[in-house]
Each structure stands twice: as C-alpha cells, then as structure tokens.
Task: structure prediction
Amino acid sequence: MINESEAIVVRYIYEAFISGVALYKIKEKAKELGLKRMGTTAVERILTNPLYYGFQHVKPWKQNPGGLYPLKNHEPIVDPTTWKLVNEKIKRGTKERKIYDDQIPLRGALRCHCGKLLTGAASKGKMGKYYYYYKCSIASAHNNINAEKAHKQLSGALELMSLPEKLISSIKEKSEIEMETTLKEHKTLLKQRQIEYEQTGQKLLSIEEKWISNRIQHDTYERWHNELTIKKESLKDQIDKLRHNSDKTYSLLQDQLFYLSDLNYVYTEANTIEKQELIKMVFDDFLYYENGIYRTPYIMEPFIRNEFKMRGMGCLDYTKKRDN
Result:
C-alpha cells in the first residue's frame, strides 16, 4: 500500500531530477517535504530503486535468468517511463554542478550572444557593498551585465508580454470546448487500453501455464514473458495518464490561467528554479543578451505582444528566425 505523504516526496524527487534541478536543491526540498531517510546518497538510492515503479531486481537462480521483474499486488509510485528516463539520465552522467543564487536567478538560463550560458557573481564596490553581475565565461568583453539593470529590463518585457483579460477569457472558452472533445476521445481510448491490458494479462498467464507444464522451452518463455510484461507495463502507464491528466489540466485551466494577465508577477513570486523553468519555456531556451538588450528568435505564441514597444523601451528585441 502506498503511503501518500511519503509518495509525494518520491514523486517530487523524480519530477525535479527530470526537470534538471540540481541534486543538492532536490535534497533540500525533499527534507522540507518530510524525507526521513538519512545519508548523503538517500536521494540517489530513491532514484535508482525499481521498487518505486513496481519492479524488483532478481538474481539469477539455476536456469532462471536474473533481471528486473514486475511485483504482483505492488502499486507503483512513479510510472515506468519516468523511472527509465531518470535512470538513463543518471547513466549519462552530469557534466556540471548547478549552483543557484537568488540574487542572480538567470545564471544558467540566460545566454551570451556567443551562445554560452552566462555565469554570475558578486563584485565588491569601493564602499564595501556587493553588486551582482552576469558574465560570459568565454570572454569578459562579450558580456558583463549589471544584474539589477538586467532584472528591470526583464520585468519590463514580461509586463508587456502579459495577456489582456479579454484574450484570457477567449483562451479559456476555446480550451474548454477543445477539452470536451478531448475528454470524449480519452474515454473511448481508455476503454480500448483497458481491454488490451486485460488481454495482455491473460496472455501472460497462458505463457506461465505453458512453461510450468513444459509445453514451451525456457528461452521461448523468457522472450514472450519479457515482451508481454513490457507491453502490459506500457498499457498501465497509458491508462493512468488517460484517467488523471484531463482532471489536472482542467483544474489548472480554471484556477491558474488568470495569472497570465501579470507574467511579471508569476516570475517575481517564483523561486529561482521556477524562474529558470519559466524563462526556458517561454523563450524555448533561446534568451540572449547583447549590446545592452535581451534578444530572442522565439517567444511562445500567446506572449508575442508589443514587440515594437519592448524594443523601443530597450527591454527585448524579438526577431523571428524560425517557425514558432
């Protein structure tokens, strides 16, 4: 049985890791959420433990091969796709350690015109006060930006990109119509996937019975058992998503959409990690700084507004170079 209060922590750890949040930040937040495990590698062990997606490592025994096998009557906390993505990312390894600083939240999200992500640090003034700057690690001549100035420019751009209430109402109305259509399609698809799931489960039982009664060879059993197990696992993942995603999307639509009327407020109230996620999403990780102004070839479509005004105010120069 799932302990939901602990499951919330586990799901956060997996989602944050996939989003690219630094491990030390994940550990800090996990402790705030109530992670009770001790040790410096507690989070890493959670990320690599297959029990969380309903599988278990089994050692080879006699003619039976080892490997990952599904657990019966074991409700998974994360879906198989998430677990596999996380562990593929762990195998690839990380090239650099991210360090977040609330004084320079754009470090690691804002790029120099040469394409390199800008770093940032504090510089001590003559009177002992510290001033923060964003810098290019390739060449100091590229960019050495006063962080306070950069933040004011970004705030100005986000204010001008915010959506008017009339447009938000239109988006909401059209989205609700599309969601009704999608919900009907999901119900039909859900029934199909549930039938396929039951049929796959019956085939698995049939394969097991044939192997027990010596009607098939072990290598044949192993091949079909693995294929059917993977298929069943994938179908369960699809069923879970079809059941829950629509409810979550509808809730976000009703409760959160109005915040887009003040995009700068959304950014200001976010923590450093959320700020970086927002910037990367809105500008598709193509936000640059050159000659005293932000530049980008991409803006998420609803926010393409007031381009001339943003350029004239010295906030953001949007020059489309590819299809949005």
